[in-house]
Design a protein that fits this description.
- It contains seven helices and eight strands.
- Helix 1 crosses helix 2 (40-57), helix 4 (103-121) crosses helix 7 (187-198) and helix 5 (147-166) crosses helix 7.
- A hairpin with a 4-residue loop joins strand 1 and strand 2.
- With 226 residues, it is α+β, with helices and mostly antiparallel strands.
- It has one domain (5-225).
- Helix content is 44%, strand content 19%.
Amino acid sequence: MALDADVLASLVFTDHLSKYPQTINAVRSNPDTGVPLHVPMEAFIQGICTAFVGALRAMEIRDLGAGNLPSPGAAIPVPFSFPGRALAVSTFVGLASWGGRDAAGVADVFIGSTLARAADIGLLQMSSNQKMGVGTGVVSPATNPHLQTAFADEMSGLIEPAFRATGKFGRDDVPTNPINPELRDQLDHYCQALAVGVASIVASVAYTGAGGGAAAAGIVNKGAII
């Protein structure tokens, strides 16, 4: 399955409802300004997931390969995971200075579920390896030291437009207005925390080719999340 923002948002909102089922009854609208009936938390999650997916799919992911010549080596899409999910959640709680009984639980949905569900539905597609025919490429934080900063910067440019596109968070409750300042001031916390999780990506990539040649090692290859 491809990484899709709407699918991801639906999965994350389902996770939220499993923890906080009463949310489904917390609906609002504003006929005077044109805000339709909606569940605010569902719209909020949509904004996060839209920006997250846009940023993640824009990232260059690198592996470190070892195997045999001759090249090229082809790779099929493979699953990936974010072992830094828990650290990302705690990072968010600290950045946002959230306290209270439900702080960790809500953060685990916004940050943890977004990372976990993205790994459930996304795949990593590496390009054909031009320096290795048969072998294995290892994706790890060590091969992607650029990723945390690159992702945070990319998502920071996408998240405000994503929330504005929902039409649910406009200043003075007007859908076409810029998003309200209180929300805007908090958005970078989501970008920074999710970047911690994304930077922890791990995967193993099998390359196939002619094989049978000289050994090849220390080869960096590039790909992307699809």
